[in-house]
Design goal:
The protein is 34% helix and 16% strand. The chain is an alpha/beta fold. The protein has 2 domains: 154 residues, Rossmann fold (3-Layer(aba) Sandwich), CATH 3.40.50.720; 268 residues, Dihydrodipicolinate Reductase, domain 2 (2-Layer Sandwich), CATH 3.30.360.10. The protein has a 9-stranded mixed sheet. α3 links the parallel β2 and β3. It is globular, with a radius of gyration of 22 Å. The structure holds nicotinamide-adenine-dinucleotide (NAD).
């Protein structure tokens, strides 16, 4: 692992986020915005102890678990020593993965839905990665921390405010990190835009746009040759029969929070949300997938607007059912320019003034000099390995590499339990806002005042 590893403070440094200093109100009020009485020492900026190697347990060896295991096994000084899943087919796949790699088989936990508790007790683990359905995330993460392990949980970290508070308090009490493994923060475009934002290219950042727009109708109805639902079809569709809001807020939001310096001098403060009518899943069930008598409650397109205490706004959307191409928007606006993704394009006031063209800088050739100048230090160092090994265009490998690097070098993680809680909070708060006809919801200060960047 490189000796040039960078600290979280340097990595996310918010010093270039000029201006926008007025604080527009403190968090208080409804929806669990008031923190529990117990005030514990912050986990903000707390470094990992240095590790010689990183011994990992994995709970949930489904699609995501398998893919992240493949990344982790390509990171130097990683040993996967335990794997848990309730599906014997996933356990068989896991065994084959280790045989193929010529690695010793990890201890396997497959007895029942609570066998993960035994994995968490295994005493030769440093870090537990959780890739199970959303309903399991919080209790598994709590169990891992309570057994003295750092934990990385898939997105979202929790689905209610009390769950998110419990993650925060447990991380503070156990002094174990709880990271939500938001891989999209490590995408090559996202990291380039982070470098641009940190170096002041956009000026004072005023607004961002984020989304998870991904047509998952086939995924939510996928069956194996025997006609049994598989993978996300066994759990994701059910959420669309119970709730109405943004059910997957973090893929677009995490990177935009990094650009804005959220928890490095700013904080998410409030949210309003509305959903469109529900139509796509119902129409699909009637025609393509034949009715099963399910009633879908989740509007096809959910749109939220978030505001930070410094007055920045974020448009946040969720749509996993409409026929259209994938996007996370990944858009950021400042006083000197803007970046928008899908496809990637840049606008700089200074360039527009010179060329007298009010047009995006777009296309591979035009963007090349900016890519070369603003390529993020991590992509410079391990980008080739990431492209060769990693899922999702390499971002998954970069994330795994970076978490391990922080543990080996004794650095604070790039994201912590406060990011996990704040980025997940739009899940319950959008549902509450939609129920209230678009009512304003306060986003709790999970950091207990440590968001100013001084911690
Ligand atoms: N970050 C990303 O890019 C990304 C991509 C895909 C999925 N995900 C997230 O990863 C998680 C898993 O998604 P997936 O697509 O792999 O779903 P999946 O259904 O393929 O895998 C989930 C696995 O968890 C297992 N499981 C369920 N309950 C369990 C229990 N009590 N104990 C042990 N194992 C249990 C299932 O048997 C299954 O193998 C979800 O939270 C999803 O949102 C993230």
């Amino acid at each position: 692992m490189s000796q040039t590893a960078i600290s979280r403070r340097f990595f996310l440094q918010a010093s270039a986020l000029a201006g926008a200093t007025a604080t527009l109100g403190a968090a208080s009020g409804p929806q669990g915005a008031t923190p529990p009485k117990e005030a514990l020492e912050t986990m903000m900026g707390v470094p990992f102890p240095k590790h010689d190697k990183v011994r990992i347990g994995v709970i949930g060896a489904g699609r995501r678990g398998q893919s992240v295991m493949s990344d982790l096994l390509n990171v130097p000084k990683v040993e996967i020593r335990a794997v848990c899943d309730i599906d014997p087919r996933q356990i068989e796949l896991t065994k084959k993965r280790f045989v193929r790699k010529g690695l010793p088989e990890p201890r396997l936990y497959a007895k029942d839905a609570r066998d993960y508790e035994n994995l968490c007790k295994q005493d030769d683990l440093d870090f537990i990665f959780i890739a199970t359905p959303w309903e399991w995330h919080t209790e598994m993460a709590l169990c891992a921390m309570n057994q003295g392990k750092h934990v990385g949980v898939e997105v979202p970290a929790g689905v209610t405010l009390p769950q998110l508070w419990e993650l925060v308090r447990t991380s503070e009490r156990t002094r174990k990190h709880c990271m939500m493994m938001e891989n999209c923060c490590y995408g090559d475009n996202e990291m380039m835009v982070l470098a641009m934002a940190r170096q002041g290219l956009f000026g004072t950042i005023t607004h961002g746009e984020a989304a998870y727009i991904h047509d998952l109708r086939m995924v939510m109805n996928e069956k194996d040759p025997e006609g049994r639902y598989v993978s996300e079809a066994t759990w994701r569709r059910a959420w669309h029969t119970r709730e109405n809001g943004n059910l997957y807020p973090t893929h677009g939001l995490g990177p935009v929070c990094w650009y804005m310096g959220v928890h490095q001098g700013d904080r998410l403060d409030s949210l309003v949300s509305m959903s469109s009518l529900e139509a796509s899943l119902s129409e699909d069930q009637a025609v393509r997938f034949k009715g099963r008598g399910e009633t879908f409650t989740c509007g096809d397109i959910n749109t939220s607007i978030l505001r930070t205490v410094k007055g920045r706004t974020i448009l946040l959307q969720h749509d996993t059912v409409s026929p259209r191409p994938y996007t996370r928007h990944n858009m950021i606006q400042g006083t000197k320019g803007a970046f928008a993704d899908y496809p990637e394009r840049l606008y700089l006031d200074e360039v527009a003034k010179k060329t007298k063209k009010h047009a995006w800088i777009e296309g591979e050739e035009a963007l090349k000099p900016y890519r070369e100048q603003y390529v993020h230090e991590l992509w410079k160092r391990v980008g080739d390995l990431a492209r060769k090994n990693g899922g999702h265009g390499g971002m998954d490998y970069i994330m795994c590499y970076r978490v391990v690097e922080c543990m080996l070098e004794g650095l604070a993680p790039d994201f912590n339990v406060y990011d996990a809680a704040a980025w997940s909070a739009p899940f319950p708060l959008s549902i509450a806002s939609v129920k209230g006809g678009g009512s304003l919801q306060k986003i709790p200060d999970f950091t207990n005042g440590h968001w100013s960047g001084k911690a």
